[in-house]
Amino acid sequence: AEHLLEVEGLKKYFPIKEGVFSKTVGHVKAVDHVSFKIKQGEIFGLVGESGCGKTTVGRTLLSLLEPTEGLVKFDQQILYNTETGERINKNDLRKLRKEMQIIFQDPYASLDPRMNVGMIVSEGLRKHKLVKNKKEAIEKSKELLELCGLEGSNVRKYPHEFSGGQRQRIGVARALALEPKFLVADEPIAALDVSIQAQMLKFMTDLKDRLGLTYLFISHDLSVVRYFCDRVAVMYLGSFAEQAPTKKLFKKPLHPYTQSLLSAVPKSDPAVKKKREILKGDVPSPADPPSGCKFHTRCKYAEDKCKIKIPVYREIEPDHFVSCHLAEKINQINNHL
Ligand code: SF4
């Protein structure tokens, strides 16, 4: 399959301002040199602890935020290339925005309580003048609700009349109104009852197959990512620690950070007892990240060079990327193979 999205050397730094003159005294390196590609029809998972930069990646791809540096290409079109100074013009961006939509984490906060469901779902259609009148907007909203497994007659109701799961489906219906190709789902099930999380994931998978969508799925939960995503990238302090097809990553995690995260995931088979590794210390601040390998303050394998040299993010095995100086040594990978 072709790549729908290509990201190369993406950086997003936020200035830290201080004092009455708002002098810039430093930067929060929210996204720090991230590269990846998402194939058409793929579910690409982005995992990491809160504050690791995954949401910022999603928002930058949707061009809700401007990248500080890097190349972003969507559907063969360059959105940004800071190296050449190229950027998409406003008209093309408006068109492209329709093709990239977001599903928010919180189905309670993301739906305007004063608008009825028909208005919410058809908001984008009305904004882009894709419906002629109110009647058409209501008809289209009904269709979209039905596509998302809700009754069309719900158009006249208000968000408070629905459960969390239903609200999230309304959010999805709204995202689908403009017939996007690409959806950023930012923790779409984290705020839902555990009992309906699996159902929501199944619904999203069916939808993807039916409509030929591509997802960037942002989550802090490895066990969710495991069953939902085709490919997973693990983020730590703004950078990718590791990226691989899901099966590969779970079978043979190569980065010490991924290994410790995985050791904390409960095993489905109680006979398999694996020692849970507790990471030492807290996540350092992205405003003042550790030198060299950002993970060195918490890594049990850290050597002197880890404190000085930034590890290169490299393809260590076919389709398996990792940024660790000692990956071969830690995992006893035979380089000749
Ligand atoms: Fe640990 Fe060093 Fe690898 Fe970083 S580069 S993950 S500190 S071993």
TrEMBL record:
GO molecular function: ATP binding; ATP hydrolysis activity
Keyword Transmembrane helix part of the UniProt annotation: no
GO BP, one annotated term: peptide transport
InterPro entries from the UniProt entry: AAA+_ATPase, ABC_transp_ATP-bind, ABC_transporter-like_ATP-bd, ABC_transporter-like_CS, Oligopep_ABC_C, P-loop_NTPase
Chain ranges of the ABC transporter domain: 5-262
Name of a matching Pfam family: ABC_tran
The UniProt record lists the keyword Cytoplasm: no
Alphabetically ordered keywords of this record: ATP-binding, Nucleotide-binding, Transport
Family of this protein: Belongs to the ABC transporter superfamily.
Name of the protein in question: ABC transporter ATP-binding protein
Organism (species): Isachenkonia alkalipeptolytica
